[in-house]
Design the sequence.
């Protein structure tokens, strides 16, 4: 099972095993990692699963769809590393990935 | 000092109260009593992806795994509803007959499907759609060429019609009013969705009122309409709205008026009792009116306000509502309430399947429907959220841009 390290805004680390097929959002909310809400349950409708993923992992991630790009405009403190966690489905290639969570979603 | 929180209900709002209490550092006990057999799960997909799926996975709907509740110290009692409240003694009675004391009680009891009260509604071919069990029962009966009659053209009925078409069912949708979705959107979006469903093969009949459902031989049923017409089918889904579950509140003398009456902190007239989610009649300080909402946003944000109040802090629930729906490949996202609008601005390209409707009261935008146009929704959420009274002068509203065909912006009567 891929190991993913979530780091919250206070630098607390959460080293988690996230099953293949789960999303980065689900991995965070199901393990109570602070900073990710996922209010809409992964429908890409609420923009409360904003996370930061370092560009060194960018090649592993799917391209942002138009919907994701536009929904990200709702998030605060968006950077080039910003993604919506519900759009990122974990597979073996995500093993070792580091995900930073924001202080708050709004 | 609150040490014991009891939550009556086990849906999204109940869960969010528990999570928000812990996030705010609450260290007392949290006990959730749910009449459902499953841990809190997502309801929105039940009428959408779940119903349309070939093989549905109910476990995948769960918001959180069982370990999460242990980790956060949230006790969840499944199939154990709260049955009565003793306000003086600050105790609740449970379905098991036991009683449990509380310092703060949260009623997150949700809503139940409205029934039509028609002869034949109790037949086993007649469905409602609220719980995972409801969805699974209906999903198992949808096969290619199953004849389904959906009674009700709101969000739920239209979403279910779309999902049933995706299963290959033949769908007739009956709407009692002259158009679908009259409670939740204006005529432009309703017309677009009606055309969409018709193009997908759904027969939509407006001003069609079912008066009786008869069992017939070969296992089917006959839906009899007020005009005497009869529709022969295999299954019927009644999707005509919900009724808030206010029995517990009513039973202990709390004010109820189309929902449990609460303030902007989710507090009832009893300072130890709160309510959150679909079951509440709450004030919206931004819009200056009381309302009862059925939405994820309401379930989550009202819960946060309740949790804050329980720990002695304050985060009043004062937000412009938003909603969403998925039908076929169309995503409808709504912000604000369209009722009362006298003009609309149409932006984008309905013929190409992506557009937005801005709803105006006078010269101010109060609501936005975005069809396959997330940017318009995002813009609406941002601008209306920042406006002190949830309305923004049209003149300050940014032009539509990019491929949204900015040229096509027309003001017309609502």
Sequence:
């Amino acid at each position: 099972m891929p190991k993913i390290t979530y780091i919250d805004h206070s630098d607390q680390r959460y080293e988690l095993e996230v099953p293949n097929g789960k999303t980065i959002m689900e991995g965070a909310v199901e393990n109570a990692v602070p900073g990710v809400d996922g209010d809409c349950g992964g429908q890409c409708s609420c923009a409360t699963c904003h996370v930061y993923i370092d560009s060194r992992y960018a090649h592993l991630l799917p391209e942002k769809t138009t919907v994701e790009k536009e929904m990200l405009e709702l998030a605060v403190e968006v950077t080039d590393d910003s993604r919506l966690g519900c759009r990122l489905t974990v597979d073996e290639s995500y093993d070792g990935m580091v995900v930073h969570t924001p202080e708050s979603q709004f | 000092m609150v040490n014991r929180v009891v939550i009556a209900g086990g849906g999204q709002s109940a869960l969010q109260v528990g999570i928000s209490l812990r996030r705010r550092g609450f260290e007392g006990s949290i006990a959730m009593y749910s009449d459902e057999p499953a841990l809190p799960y997502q309801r929105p997909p039940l009428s959408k992806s779940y119903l349309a799926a070939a093989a549905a996975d109910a476990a995948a709907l769960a918001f959180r795994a069982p370990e999460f509740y242990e980790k956060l110290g949230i006790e969840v009692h499944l199939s154990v509803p709260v049955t009565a409240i003793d306000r003086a003694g600050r105790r609740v009675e449970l379905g098991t007959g036991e009683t449990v004391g509380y310092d703060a009680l949260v009623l997150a009891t949700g809503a139940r499907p409205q029934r039509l009260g028609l002869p034949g509604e109790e037949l086993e071919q007649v469905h409602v759609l609220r719980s995972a069990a409801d969805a699974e029962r209906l999903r198992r009966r949808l096969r290619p060429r199953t004849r389904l009659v959906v009674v009700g053209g709101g969000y739920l009925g239209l979403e279910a019609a779309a999902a049933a078409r995706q299963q290959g069912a033949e769908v007739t949708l009956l709407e009692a009013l002259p158009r679908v979705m009259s409670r939740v959107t204006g005529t432009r979006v309703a017309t677009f969705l009606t055309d969409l469903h018709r193009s997908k093969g759904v027969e939509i009949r407006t001003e069609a009122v079912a008066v009786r459902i008869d069992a017939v031989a070969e296992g089917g049923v006959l839906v009899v309409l007020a005009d005497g017409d009869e529709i022969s089918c295999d299954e019927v889904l009644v999707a005509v709205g919900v009724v808030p579950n206010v029995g517990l509140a009513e039973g202990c003398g709390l004010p109820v008026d189309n929902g449990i009456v609460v303030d902007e902190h989710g507090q009832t007239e009893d300072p130890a009792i709160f309510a959150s989610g679909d079951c509440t009649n709450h004030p919206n300080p931004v819009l200056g009116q009381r309302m009862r909402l059925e939405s994820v946003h309401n379930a989550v944000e009202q819960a946060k306000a309740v949790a804050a109040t329980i720990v002695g802090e304050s985060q009043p629930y004062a937000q412009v509502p938003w909603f969403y729906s998925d039908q076929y490949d169309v995503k409808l996202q709504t912000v604000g309430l369209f009722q009362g609008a006298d003009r609309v601005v149409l932006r984008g390209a309905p013929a190409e399947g992506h557009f937005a409707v801005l709803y105006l009261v006078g010269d101010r935008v109060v609501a936005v429907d975005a069809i396959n146009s997330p940017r318009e929704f995002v813009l609406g959420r941002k601008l209306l959220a920042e406006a002190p009274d949830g309305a923004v002068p049209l003149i300050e509203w940014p032009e539509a841009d990019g491929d949204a065909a900015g040229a096509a912006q027309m003001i017309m009567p609502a």
